[in-house]
What does this fold into?
Amino acid sequence: MPEQQSLQNLPDSKTGTGRPDVVAAINAKAGGGHAEALAAHITDEFARHGLRAVVHLAHSGEDMLQAAREAVRDQVPVVAVGGGDGSVNAVASTLLADGQCRSALGVLPLGTLNHFAKDLGIPLVLEEAIANIATGRRLRVDSGEVNGQPFINNSSLGLYPDIVREREKQQARLGRGKWLAFTWAAMGALRRYPFLRVRLSIDGQEHWRRTPFVFIGNNEYLMSGLDIGKRSTLTDGRLSLYVCHRTGRWGLLRLALHALFGRLQAAQDFDVLTATEIHIETHKKRMRVATDGEVNLMQTPLHYRIRPASLEVIVPQEANDDAGKEAGMLDKLWGDR
It folds into this structure.
């Protein structure tokens, strides 16, 4: 069984007193019904690398946040999170909220897509991800923010939040699996095909768009080739904006085909911009906004901004980071704690 003691009373791995080396908050739904065995395995794997870990099985989002808050308060060197991108974002938000945070984020990819881990070169095999936390380096990466709500991957308006909301309804009411519910929700959204009329204020210029979706990324997403939808760096200090406009259902299908074949850059009626701040206005007083797959109602206007080098993450020693090739960027990239 994983340890469930209060952090303030935990023995240190070397002296037997003080704080642990790692606190890991794990989604209790992970492990295919064997979460306790998974937590014990994670504890043992950290011990094999000489680190004393305390693993919390989180049965709710609040459980996960509370474990992370206590770890940050107690200045635990590494706060690890086991789950998908939504769980990673939740724990990362706790670290970002503390301006004096001395804890680095460790990622144990236990989700379906694991975009954040993939973009940073973090291993997707659990044992290798634990080894990475033990042997890796600290890298300061950017995060995005919309109306004070942080995100580490992306945020979107329009079709996607609509689909997620309907998918959750179908899962709750009809008992459908995640992907079946998503498919039905997507088909329903395309039948309705709602448009947003938005005014985008970017670097002092205004752009009016009538669009089915607006997508904002933390740093720039690749738009061509087999790596479409990935990011080559999370340290460039820029938001990326992708907006589809003046297109109907068939135009959206063409856009999807361009994406499938790695040719989004060739798509018409598709704008791509980068900026450090983006303001979005619409006639709606409140609207659904997705941040890393979680949907919330937010007051408009929406204010997006980049937060450069705001989050410290444990990444592999050999992780490929283009910014790291520039000597002048070393202070930004390497943790000094």
Confidence is low (pLDDT under 50) at residues 1-17, 257-264, 320-337.
